[in-house]
Amino acid sequence: SVKVTGGILIAKKGISGQNHKKKLHAELEIAKAYHRHGITIIVLTENDLKEIADGANLIKILLKNYEMTRFDKP
After folding, report:
1. For 58, which of 21, 47, 50, 67 is 20 to 30 Å away at the CA?
2. What's the rounded Cα separation, in Å, for the pair 70 and 38?
3. How far apart are CA 15 and CA 27, in angstroms?
4. In this structure, how many other beta carbons lie within 10 angstroms of the beta carbon of residue 39?
């Protein structure tokens, strides 16, 4: 009802389909949400959170993960 167009999903080990040559269901659904409906879901893993805790730039990590969805790259 509020027409949200984005969100951040924190998944300790990532989602199914990541780090595989062939996309599996969850990663494919995230890509479809972006390309069909303009909804962006950024997945942050435990490693991303550790990098942020160690001083990495949050915006750069979010942008990197956003681009992986936007440009359909693993």
Report:
1. 21
2. 10
3. 7
4. 16
pLDDT at residue number 3: 83
Contact 33, 69 (CB under 8 A): no
Helices 58-70 & 25-37, crossing angle to 10 degrees? Answer: 90
The SS3 call for residue 48 is helix
CA 27 from chain center: how many Å?
9
> Which has more confidence, 47 or 13?
47
* Average pLDDT, integer, range 43-56: 95
pLDDT mean over 17-23: 58
Contacts from 32-36 at CB under 8 Å and sequence distance 24+? 34/69, 34/70, 35/72
